[in-house]
């Protein structure tokens, strides 16, 4: 028997940056830092992914087994970076360097309480600069209409260029209990 799913239609926009930003980076506030998690545990990763992504229907990694996530997190080419404000996680990003020519910003986001606090732009720049430090030819990212409405404009403002937009229908398992964002038209 097939697992019950909710069909959700989203437009996924793929973006690419072919040169590092020329302008100087905006510094993070003094009470904020970004830590690379050198040996990210599956429970901590799930906490980050689930908390950051729940409002935006991040579901794909929720369907992965612990063994699948542990295998991904053990890859030297995949790194997890946590924005820390006053000692607690305020967001995270994941860089995927498995492609020899490109670094993909696989996930990027803020904890719900940190949205609108002015941390996003500097944190995104930190992610972009860290991606470029790998010495690859390009940095890529994608976002979709399920994400925060400011995600796409933020990526464009950071220097990413739109490559294409593709309509997808996601089979989101109902067992996950995720709510479709109010701003997203359902398919």
From TrEMBL:
Superkingdom as given in the UniProt entry: Bacteria
For this protein, the record's CDD domains field holds: NAT_SF (cd04301)
Q: Name one GO molecular function term.
A: acyltransferase activity, transferring groups other than amino-acyl groups
Where does the N-acetyltransferase domain start and stop, copy by copy? 43-181
| Stated name of the protein | GNAT family N-acetyltransferase
Q: Lineage of the source organism?
A: Bacteria, Pseudomonadati, Pseudomonadota, Alphaproteobacteria, Acetobacterales
């Amino acid at each position: 028997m097939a697992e019950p799913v909710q069909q959700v239609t989203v437009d996924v926009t793929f973006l690419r940056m072919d040169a590092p930003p020329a302008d100087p980076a905006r510094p993070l506030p003094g009470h904020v830092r970004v830590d690379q998690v050198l040996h990210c545990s599956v429970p901590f990763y799930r906490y980050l992914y689930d908390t950051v992504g729940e409002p935006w229907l991040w579901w794909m990694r929720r369907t992965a087994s612990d063994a699948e996530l542990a295998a991904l997190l053990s890859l030297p080419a995949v790194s997890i970076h946590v924005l820390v404000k006053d000692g607690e996680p305020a967001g995270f990003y994941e860089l995927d360097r498995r492609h020899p020519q490109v670094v993909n910003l696989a996930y990027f986001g803020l904890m719900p309480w940190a949205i609108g606090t002015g941390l996003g732009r500097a944190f995104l720049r930190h992610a972009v600069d860290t991606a470029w430090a790998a010495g690859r030819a390009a940095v890529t990212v994608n976002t979709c209409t399920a994400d925060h409405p400011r995600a796409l404009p933020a990526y464009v403002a950071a220097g990413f260029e739109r490559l294409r937009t593709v309509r997808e229908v996601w089979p989101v398992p109902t067992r996950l209990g995720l709510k479709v964002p109010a701003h997203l038209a359902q398919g």
